[in-house]
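User: Reviewer 2 asked us to show a designed sequence for the structure in our supplementary figure. I'm pasting the structure tokens here. Could you produce the per-position amino acids so we can include them in the response letter?
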């Protein structure tokens, strides 16, 4: 079982270092959107990036993407398809952002 505890989080800057503070994402239909890189962290053996739409407001829900690294070191941001993983990472991000 993966440990998604706040005390296990390691803050990173891989995406920001590779692409800068704004990333360009393309959806399935070819639509390009720009997102600001808000946070990046590793937890439970996986890496995640929290992104906000460039033209959105601070009240918009952030997008949480999984960061994958290819064998040649290239980074890729992918949607978290596993519902349990997404729920765990989303709850962890809320805990980190809004501590009690």
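Assistant: Here is a per-position design you can include in the supplement:
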């Amino acid at each position: 079982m993966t440990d998604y505890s706040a005390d296990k989080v390691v803050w990173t800057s891989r995406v920001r270092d590779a692409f800068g503070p704004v990333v360009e994402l393309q959806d399935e239909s070819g639509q390009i959107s720009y997102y600001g890189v808000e946070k990046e962290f590793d937890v439970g053996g996986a890496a995640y990036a929290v992104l906000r739409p460039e033209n959105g407001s601070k009240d918009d829900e952030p997008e949480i993407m999984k960061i994958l690294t290819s064998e040649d070191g290239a980074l890729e941001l992918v949607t978290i398809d596993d519902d349990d993983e997404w729920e765990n990472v989303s709850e962890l991000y809320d805990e980190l952002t809004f501590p009690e």
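For the response letter, you might also mention the following. The first helix runs from residue 14 to 19. The beta strands are 10-11, 22-26, 32-43, 46-53, 63-69, 75-79.
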